[in-house]
Amino acid sequence: MPQDSPDTNSPTTRQWKTLDKDLGRIGQLELAAQYVARPMVGLGVALAFMVIVGLLAALLAGAGSASGLIIVAAAVLGAYMAINIGANDVANNMGPAVGANALTMGGAIVIAALCESAGALLAGGDVVSTISKGIIDPTSVADTKIFVWAMMAALTSSALWVNLATWVGAPVSTTHSVVGGVMGAGIAAAGFGAVNWPSMGAIALSWVISPVLGGVIAAAFLAFIKIYIIYREDKIAAAQRWVPVLVGIMAGTFATYLALKGLKKVVHIDLGSALMIGVLIGAFSYAAAAPFVRRQSAGMENRNKSLKALFAMPLVISAALLSFAHGANDVANAVGPLAAIVHSVNFAEISGKVEIPTWVMIIGAFGISFGLVLFGPKLIRMVGSQITKLNPMRAYCVALSAALTVIVASGFGLPVSSTHIAVGAIFGVGFFREWYTARHVPSKSGPGKRLAVEERRRRKLVRRSHFLTIVAAWVITVPAAAVMSALVFLALRAIFL
């Protein structure tokens, strides 16, 4: 006998349907509330970290005196600056790996947080130039109180500018933000004569040199990979020959980079010695990578997808090394002015270089990690996927170019920005692909035939809107931070002096 079907019009059934609809509405409301409240969670955690830093500074410096209160306020501002560095600068190291799908967002954040903290605590310079690379002359600001408020204004303005740039979605140089802040406060405190204009000229020159050099080197490596690996008839055999070479170049480059920039706290190494270390480690890495690549590529299909798998692991390693080196160097942007304030308050003197206390370095390291975890994904996505499309080969060229460009610039004594180099390398890869594919139709055996002019104009592989926004942010970073710093200093002087 057929089973009786349920009565869909019975009062009980209608009651359950009504209840299900109500529960569905409540569930959607809860999801909407979570979506709206999510940004507030990040802000709350950041504020809690800054409060904890203030309490720590109060315990160490003593908040019962005016000098103790100044150190507490400076520590809170240093934590705020470190959070903004983590939210903005670290995207340059991890963005390409995430955009190339070699790392998930969660994996990138964990690796970056660990490597940034390790770089800051293990290899962070114990002596930093508190006047930000000689931008202002310490003797021009003879009064210790004026110097302290000038450094406070520089710290405040640079942090606010990086925060604004992160909110807009523009990766900017935190080094240049600090430089602009120090310059603006120095001008407001002692006039235009206090600024070391030749140093400022060199920094302005680096605005052009950094991204152009990074882009050219990244494009050159991508051209090499295309010619000698991607467009070869037997891609796997070509990869077995050249990928170990590229791994050796990467290892040697990062060894030189870290020896020059990341190990100042352990030992001082000149450029010649660093290059020798890089050559030795590069040769060793090549010897180790060759059999590994042969084993990994055994049985792979002769296609580009296989090549992407071969480049994925070197890309992850290079991103981790970049983060370590970034933590070792750029943490000084957060804690340099703070260290200057602590030294001036404790010793009642102004010094061009001071030692960074361990507790100050810890604030910088943890602040960068908190900023990365809480606010970093936005810039990581933008750098990794919204400027141009990246795969492991292209992203590898970006990471390698970032380290190599710093070494070349260091050899010529040029002050460069890691942010400008990394983003410039991404632009270089994108514009090279645009130039190359606009003129050739790729084929299995080689570049193929040339395209018509109309087709070239249609193929745009770099988003112009992001290009213009980022370049504009770079140009105005120093003057904007300088103006903000001068205004903050004048306000502080009017209130407290």
Account of the protein in words:
The protein has 497 residues and is an all-alpha fold. The protein is built from 15 helices and 2 strands. The chain has a two-stranded antiparallel sheet with strand order 1-2. 50% of the residues are buried.
Structural class: mainly alpha
Strand content: under 5%
Give the overall average pLDDT.
Answer: 80
Fraction of residues in helix: over 70%
- Largest sheet, if any? 2 strands, antiparallel
Q: Give a count of the beta strands, DSSP E runs of length 2 or more.
A: 2
State the end-to-end distance. 97 Å
The number of helical segments is: 15
Q: H/E element string?
A: HHHHEHHHHHHEHHHHH
**Rg from alpha-carbon coordinates:** 26 Å
- pLDDT below 50 for ≥5 consecutive residues: which ranges? none
For the biggest β-sheet, the strand order reads 1-2
Approximate shape: globular
Number of domains: 1
